[in-house]
Known about the structure:
Layout: H1 3-17, H2 22-29, H3 33-40, H4 48-58, H5 62-65, H6 74-87, H7 90-107
Helix pairs in contact: 2-3
Amino acid sequence: MDKKKLLGQRIKELRKAKNITQEDLAERINVEPASISNIECGRNYPNFATLEKTLEVLGSNFLEVFDFEHFDDISVLKNKLVDFINRANEKEIAFLYKTVVSLNEFEK
């Protein structure tokens, strides 16, 4: 997936996590709602000032907004997990296992 679409998806994800509508975000950063839509759909990149204001409203930062790994194809994620497990020591594997089991129990 291209970087413009990934950035748009990430901004949308962060916006929704804060329960902010596109219209509200647009108003807070002084742009048209269509601009937010175009950014989130991957049609346009935000300019630096818009991105900076957006991150401020969303309580985010540049490192977080450019973290796209979770958008990777499922097969890529599986391979990354296998690579991590193959490199991990016993303590890390035990911690990972406990974390996964806990998350699974929490979902029930």
